Amino acid sequence: MNTQEIINLEHTYVLQVYPRPDFVLDHGRGCRVYDTEGREYLDCVAGIAVNALGYGDPDLLQALTEQAGKLWHVSNLYHTAPHARLAKLLCETSFADRVHYANCGASANESAFKFARRYARDRHGPDKHVIVAFTGGFHGRLFGSLAATDRPKYQEPFQPLMPGVRFARFNDVSSAEEAMADDVCAVIVEPVQGEGGVHPAAPEFLAALRRLCDRHDALLIFDEVQCGLGRTGHLWAYQGYGVVPDMLTTAKPLAGGLPMGAVLMTQRVADAVHPFDHASTFAGGPLVAAVAEKLVARVSDPAFLEAVRAKGDYLRGRLAALGSPHIREVRGCGLLIGVELDIPAADVVKAAYAHGLLTVGAGPNVLRLVPPLIITYEEIDLVVERLSALLR
Ligand SMILES: Cc1ncc(COP(=O)(O)O)c(C=O)c1O
């Protein structure tokens, strides 16, 4: 099949919820992907902050093929070694005592909501069920996670969503204080908002949320689906803030590009959850867990994380120094970077294809750069060169 035939087939048979550009990706290596016509793209999307180790990483490939030859899936009815070993690694590298597996970011967040409601109901009764979320936050597109996602346009066609969500303004302590009451069972926040335009939380804001949760016996959930696992240059974004949540949700890069999510939690939360309170056929299967074990081991290396911080500083510095009249602000942490423009980000994303560059928007005017964490300085220079040419 040639490129156009593949595109026609997709248009004929696939539900059209994603508009896609008119090329077909075929293979990848490192930080570059190639289309069916042999064109190369420097990838600053990485599967939307997923492919932390890029494409074709030999360690991940080895973990995948070794486990694939042994056991792919047996359900959660049985023990498997990768499932248990990965949980140990996630606990040892974080605040957590226990791990619950999920299949993606949205399902990890919905698991966390269930655990929070379970915890609150057991201690305080059914009235304590409200989840506080924030303007600009993004937690997924399922009924519960969408209810906690401040996007009226995404929500409206699917009402009624999960009830019991209250919104407060992001980075606004008094708004959070107003939203908090004894009916709140959990507060969910992204330490660095990704989809909402790459906005880091202020350290004092996260610290205030911690205090408010403690005061009301509510659980603090950090959604690190996008900003976790090395993206900010810390293994977990909360480690850069020094504010510790009760639960942390992770997904995107966890299994190096295979679908997997997880909820990390303290023993206090785990004690409230009972057998069969929640379940999933696929979550935490041996194949994805074996790959995730390798990914977490690689990404948690302090030298790797230090390099992410240094490369992030370098890329942000170079972008700020471009002096393009279209760039209003460059912000972010590590390799989670937002470039605020005075023109629609979608136009730049589109124009970048011809320059061999993949980027993605985060809101109408923010261009998001989330390359594989293994990007080299030479590749960063090339990204800046291509972006500069296209902005000119
Ligand atoms: C912070 C955050 N939470 C949750 C999600 C939902 O993850 P998924 O698409 O894997 O369901 C996303 C996806 O972009 C995200 O960025």
Give an overview of the whole structure:
- The chain is an alpha/beta fold and about 400 residues long.
- It has two domains: about 5-55 and about 300-390, Aspartate Aminotransferase, domain 1, CATH 3.90.1150.10; about 70-300, Type I PLP-dependent aspartate aminotransferase-like (Major domain) (Aspartate Aminotransferase, domain 2, 3-Layer(aba) Sandwich).
- It is built from 15 helices and 17 strands.
- A seven-stranded mixed beta sheet has the order 4-12-11-10-7-5-6, with helices on both faces. The protein has a four-stranded mixed beta sheet with strand order 1-2-3-15.
- A hairpin with a 2-residue loop joins strand 1 and strand 2 (about 30-35).
- Pyridoxal-5'-phosphate binds next to helix 5.
- The site of pyridoxal-5'-phosphate has 14 residues, from helix 5.
